[in-house]
Every structure is written in C-alpha cells, then in structure tokens.
C-alpha cells in the first residue's frame, strides 16, 4: 500500500523532503530559547547584569525569527507536497478507472468510486500534511526537550519519562478501537453518496411520483448510519484530550512541588525550574501533537487502503501482446459461448473491518451454449423478454465483457486478439442507457468522431431522423445540451445517440433497444435510412416491438439466456411459439397508433 501511494509523490518529493528539514530546524531554534531564558533569570536578573540580559535577549529574538522563518517555509512546503500528492492520487485513480472493463466497474459502485476520489483522498491529504510537519517535528522536539531537561535535572526529567510511557499505552488503546470504527464509516459514506447520486439523477421521477418523503427518509437513514459510527469513534477519541490534560497538569504540579524543595535545598536555581516547566509544556504538547497524528492516521488508514485498492486494480480486459489492428468486415460468430457476470463479496473480521474482497466462484450463467453466425452487412433483430440476456449477448461483440467459455469472432478473428480500441471503434454500440454530456449538439456528436465536419454530423443526424428537430431549435446544432441531456426528450436523446454512433463509421452497429422512445413512424424511417445508406454495415437491433425487427434479414429469439429460435419474420411466426405470442399480443387488438404511417 505505501509503495503504491508513494509512487504518486513524483514531482513533489523535493517538497516532501524539505518540509521535515525545516521542521527540525524550527525545533532546534525553539528548543534553545528556554535554556537561554534560564540564563537571563540566573545570570542577568538575579545578578543585575543588564548587558547580559540585552545580549541574551537579542539572541533569543534572533532564534525566534529563525524559528518563525523555518516554520513558515515548512508550512509552505507541506501544503505544496500534500495538495500535489492528492492531485496525483486523484489523477492516478481517474486514469486507472478509464481502463476498467465493465466487470471492473461492476466490482465497485459508482458512489464508492466517487467517495474514494473525494473524501478518501482528502483524508490522505490532511494526514500527509500533518505527517510531514508534525511527525518529524513532534518526536524531534520531544527528544531534544527531554535531553535538555535531563541536562538540567535528571531527577525532575524522570517525571516526564513516566508520563510519556503512560500516555503511549493509553494512546495505543484509543487508536486500536478508533481505527475499526473509521473503517466502517467510509463504507457507510459509499451508501450515503449512492443515495444522493440516485436521488439527484432521478429527481424528475421522484417529483413525478411524489416520493420526496421516501427519499428523505432513505437519505436520513444513510446519514444517521454515518453519524452513529462517527459518534462511536469520537467517543473513543475524545478520551485523548482529558487524559492529555490530566497528565500535563499532574506533571506541572509534581515538577513545581519537587522543584521548590530542590531550590530550597540549593540543588536547583529559579531559572532552571522555569526552563524545566517550559520543557515540560513542550514535551507534553508534542505528545498531544503525536496523539493527533495517530488519530489522523487512524482516520486516513482505511482511506489509504481504499485508494490503493483502486490504483492497484488491473483491468480485466487488456490488449494481447501483438494485437490485430484491422477489422476485416462486420461478420460475427459465436462458438459454444457461455457467459456469467462476476460477483464479489467482502470478508470482514470481528471488528467489522473489510479484510478482502473475493470473487464468488459458483456463478450462474446468463448465456449458455450460444452458437450463432452473422454475415457482414446483415440486419439482425433480437427479441426476447426482460432478463433473457439480449444486452449481455451483444456486449460480448465489442468485448465490453469477456466470455466465460467459448469464443466470439468479429471479421473472422477472436475479439481477444484485437486491439481493444480498434475493435470498439469498428463495433459501435448504442446502449440502453446512453447519455448526452454538457455542451453543444455538435460537441456531443463528435464523441463519435472528434474530427467530423459539420456536414458529416448533419448527415449522420439525417440518417438517425434527428436533423429536423435539431433545426427547430433556435440555435440549431449549436444548441446547448444540459448534463445528461435533460433538456431534450427521450426519443430525441436516443436519435442523437444513434447519430453519434454512426459518425464512427462502424462495420457493426448495435442498437440496444435504442428506439424504444421513438414512435414507429420514425423508427421505420431510421431502418429505411440504414438499409439504403449503410448497406455494408452489420446492423444488430434489440427491440421489444415486433415492428422494429420484423423486416430484418433474420430475427433471433432469446429466452432465459439461450437462443430459442432464428429465422425470418414469417418463419418464426410458423415455428416459434414465443415469437408468435409476442406478435399476437402486440397486434391482436390495440395495435400501434401509427403503425400504418410507419410502414409507408
């Protein structure tokens, strides 16, 4: 873990080294001041030597100025190092997340990834800044102060030593219990962020169904869970302050009482007692700083583990050593394919701490014994009930997931042999939940081809039947799209996503229920445009409506992860019960209000 995180210091190593150096120098200058103060009292004030008082006073002033300067520089370097470290961690995680396959993303929730990129990194940043400044300053200051105290009086300094040992034991117990609670806290943060994310992204649905009270209750439960765990942790950590104060004041009282007797006996001077009391406060304050460091470390350790987990996560889908860089054509073949999604579970110890995340081995196949051959340029329809694994089937073509058994070939080559980017550029997928991004319509369309001209964008939109509604906007193609495409309708959003996919000029175009929000007349126009304008592109259309697939070259009927039938519309009507039932249920009585217009 430390090696993983440390690798992201990079250009901030220099600042990380300079910070403790400045802190040591600050301690050196500060630790001499009480010693000189004793000299002023004993050799200046009591003897009435004004020159000695002025000379030593000026030296103390110079040391204070040096301590201030090195302290400021240490703070500056620490801020630079910690914020830069946090920046590199976020970038490292974000870059690695971009390489994740769908199965990697399934392992971590979206809310969990956001928590790691924000809250967890902030915890590490704060802990690292304190570590650079205090973890070097406090021990060094404590050791120097202890040495100076023993130089003055080993008898009185022994009181400090006993106090340090007692505090060390108590602090170790506090940290042990607090760390377990903080580990659980950040898992609860994931649940809290998930609740917020879900509510905000679906706020229109929430309001439409008047479910604000339900969502408030759900958020309240998640928030209360975080609150309870923080309270448990804080109840443990709050013991730190009273214990420290009790120890500090007990030491002061003991030193004052024993020191007074030593002064009366002539074994100690007033100035030396003053210095010892100053060193007492110095030692015990540094102990308090150390305790705060350990508290911060106990909070940041779970965060560090969570961040390192993302940085160390390896993408399941990577390029082979010598990848194929050209997709010959749009033919697709499935050979004896089985597929199961990966599922994970967390293993916890008796304190509720997650020790590891393991994959569940006994997974149920969502696709079983799939054998299928699609010719380049064919139009294939896929029909099936909800949960029949239609989307799972097409996700294997662009290698969004890898098969569990068997192989998938595109252009006669196993998809695992291709360069992933090359393959996905030639297999364009319009997913069920495609979204638009903030920016103009042109900006969104150029996700398909960043170098596409305005004319190419407009042609793609005409094929997707999006041109007319775009031109109805006052700003046309320069119309700004809100985040997620909330200022356009569902059907408009789907057509823009189809146009975006067409701009990739793919050899295979997959529409995963991507015209579900489009009326049948427009759906028919899109199919007609595809047939006329991109005849050599293999088109795979997943749909719930018979109208969307009945004119396909072949139709695949899926049922419970298996292929139940393959054929043309007429062949399936006569031979496949599932297809026949779906056809009769959709055309038997109500029909479709614009079916006739759609066929024209």
Explain what the structure shows.
Mean pLDDT is 82; it is low at 589-600. With 600 residues, the protein is an alpha/beta fold. Helix content is 62%, strand content 12%. α2 packs antiparallel against α3 (50-98) and α2 runs antiparallel to α10. The chain has a 6-stranded mixed beta sheet with strand order 8-11-12-5-13-14. The protein has a 4-stranded antiparallel beta sheet with strand order 4-1-6-7, with no helix packed on it. The longest helix is centred in the N-terminal third of the chain and has 49 residues, at 50-98.
What's the gist of this structure?
The chain is built from 21 helices and 14 strands.
What's the arrangement of secondary structure elements?
Blueprint: H1 2-6, H2 13-45, H3 50-98, H4 102-107, H5 110-152, H6 154-201, H7 203-208, H8 212-237, H9 240-264, H10 270-312, E1 332-339, E2 344-348, E3 354-359, E4 367-374, E5 379-384, H11 390-395, E6 405-410, E7 413-414, H12 420-426, E8 427-430, E9 439-440, H13 441-445, H14 454-463, H15 467-471, E10 480-481, H16 490-502, E11 508-512, H17 520-533, E12 538-542, H18 546-549, E13 554-559, E14 562-567, H19 569-575, H20 577-587, H21 595-599
Parallel strand pairs: 5-12, 5-13, 8-11, 11-12
Antiparallel strand pairs: 1-4, 1-6, 2-3, 6-7, 9-10, 13-14
The backbone outline, from C-alpha atoms, is elongated
End-to-end C-alpha gap = 64 Å
Radius of gyration: 35 Å
Number of separate strands: 14
Q: How many distinct helices?
A: 21
Proportion in helices: 55-70%
Query: Approximately how much beta-strand content do the residues carry?
Result: 5-15%
- Spans of at least 5 consecutive residues whose pLDDT stays below 50 are 589-600
Oligomer: single chain
Find the structural class using helix and strand composition.
alpha/beta
Largest sheet: 6 strands, mixed
Side-by-side strand order of the widest sheet: 8-11-12-5-13-14
> Mean of residue pLDDT?
82
């Amino acid at each position: 873990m430390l090696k993983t995180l440390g690798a992201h210091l990079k250009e901030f190593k220099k600042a990380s080294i300079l910070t403790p150096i400045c802190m040591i120098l600050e301690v050196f200058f500060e630790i001499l001041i009480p010693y000189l103060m004793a000299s002023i009292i004993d050799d200046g004030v009591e003897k009435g030597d004004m020159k000695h008082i002025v000379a030593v006073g000026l030296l103390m002033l110079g040391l204070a100025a040096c301590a201030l300067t090195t302290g400021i520089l240490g703070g500056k370097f620490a801020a630079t190092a910690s914020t830069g470290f946090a920046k590199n961690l976020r970038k490292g995680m974000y870059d690695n997340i971009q390489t994740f396959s769908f199965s990697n993303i399934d392992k971590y929730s979206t809310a969990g990834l956001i928590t790691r990129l924000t809250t967890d990194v902030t915890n590490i940043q704060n802990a690292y800044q304190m570590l650079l400044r205090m973890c070097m300053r406090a021990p060094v200051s404590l050791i120097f102060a202890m040495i100076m105290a023993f130089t003055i009086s080993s008898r009185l300094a022994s009181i400090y030593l006993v106090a340090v040992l007692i505090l060390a034991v108590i602090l170790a117990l506090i940290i042990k219990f607090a760390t377990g609670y903080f580990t659980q806290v950040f898992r609860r943060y994931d649940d809290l962020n998930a609740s917020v994310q879900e509510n905000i992204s679906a706020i229109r649905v929430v309001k439409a169904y008047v479910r604000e009270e339900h969502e408030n209750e759900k958020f309240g439960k998640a928030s209360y869970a975080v609150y309870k765990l923080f309270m448990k942790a804080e109840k443990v950590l709050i013991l730190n302050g009273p214990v420290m104060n009790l120890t500090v004041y007990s030491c002061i009282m003991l030193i004052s009482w024993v020191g007074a007797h030593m002064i009366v006996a002539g074994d100690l001077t007033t100035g030396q007692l003053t210095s010892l009391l100053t060193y007492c406060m110095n030692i015990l304050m540094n102990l308090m700083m150390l305790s705060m460091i350990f508290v911060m470390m106990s909070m940041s350790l779970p965060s560090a583990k969570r961040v390192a987990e993302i940085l160390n996560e390896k993408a399941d889908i990577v390029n082979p050593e010598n990848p194929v860089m050209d997709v010959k054509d749009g033919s697709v073949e499935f050979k004896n394919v089985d597929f199961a999604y990966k599922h994970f579970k967390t293993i916890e110890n008796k304190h509720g701490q997650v020790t590891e995340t393991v994959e569940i081995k006994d997974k149920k196949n969502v696709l079983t014994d799939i054998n299928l051959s699609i010719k380049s340029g064919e139009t294939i329809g896929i029909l099936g009930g909800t949960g029949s694994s239609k989307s799972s089937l097409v996700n294997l073509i662009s290698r969004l997931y890898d098969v569990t058994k068997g192989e998938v070939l595109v252009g006669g080559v196993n998809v695992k042999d291709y360069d992933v980017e090359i393959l996905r550029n030639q297999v364009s997928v319009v997913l069920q939940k495609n979204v638009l991004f903030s920016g103009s319509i042109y900006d969104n369309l150029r996700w398909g081809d960043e170098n596409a001209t305005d004319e190419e964008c407009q042609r793609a939109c005409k094929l997707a039947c999006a041109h007319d509604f775009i031109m109805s906007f006052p700003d046309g193609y320069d119309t700004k799209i809100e985040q997620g495409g909330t200022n356009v309708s569902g059907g408009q959003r789907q057509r823009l996503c189809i146009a975006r996919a067409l701009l990739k000029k793919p050899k295979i175009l997959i529409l995963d229920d991507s015209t579900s929000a489009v009326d049948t007349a427009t759906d028919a126009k899109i199919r007609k445009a595809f047939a006329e304008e991109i005849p050599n592109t293999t088109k795979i259309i997943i749909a719930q409506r018979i109208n969307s697939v009945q004119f396909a070259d072949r139709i695949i009927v899926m049922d419970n992860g298996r292929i139940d039938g393959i054929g043309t519309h007429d062949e399936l009507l006569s031979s496949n019960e599932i297809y026949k039932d779906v056809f009769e249920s959709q055309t038997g009585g109500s029909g479709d209000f614009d079916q006739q217009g759609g066929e024209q």
